[in-house]
Design goal:
14 helices; about 20% strand; globular; eight-stranded mixed β-sheet; Rossmann fold; alpha/beta
Length: about 280
Amino acid sequence: MLIAPAWATLLGACQPAAIADALTPRAGTRLVPDLAYGAGARQRLDLYLPAAPRNATPLLVFFYGGGWRSGERGSYGFVARVLAARGFAVAVPDYRLWPEGRWPGFVEDAAAALHWLDGREATAAGVPRGGPVHVMGHSAGGTIAASLALDPRWLGAARRAALAGCITLAAPFDWAPRREPLVSIFAAAPDGAIRAAPEDPALLAAAPPMLLLHGADDRTVRPEQSQRMAARLAEAGAREVRLRVFPGVGHIAILAAMAAPVRALGLARAPVLEEVTGFAAAA
């Protein structure tokens, strides 16, 4: 079940992201597809723009989930378009996946995408300049986004400091995998663990503003992941930490709540879109 029985019936046996994308209106947004941010086959991103972008248009860089072993940027236009319709530019990068993609390769890909978005080729492609830049992600993509925001080794201290914020949806921040392929995916990580944040409280204190969203009914990534991360950030003295845990919302539902068809049918159980846009617009 994604949101409610009616939505599950509508989806049937199809992929939820592909259905949501197919039903999301295109009017008022523009897609610039297949932009190369590196030489690798999966180092590509799609750029979604509002109808009238300006130099100071905020940019959201969205990393999708899929357990670091599945996902395609083209399936997540439903997230990007609903944000673009509200005045944001949105980049959706692909990144290396298992078995080619292992830690830290996908984080390095994400960092490369951010650096490319700062460059001349991105400007020529239509990426707006002068506005705030947020990183955002769901599930595994949330871990990637948080890694960029919390650990300066990926972007460098200056580029990390320039981030306006980080938005995570149902992200695992500190987790020791016990099953394959996650064990192999994170074999090169310290202790073989999924860890988005460094241990040094001083590095956490320098984090950009953080919005951590989670569903109370998430059985894939328990909400304690976001709760503990929010507590660590607050204890370290991070400048802004917002935590929202939504009752009755599961792991997929928190992302589906942003989809135009879900919202149009009145099936969204949580104001996820409002939280995201309000946070990003305040930068």
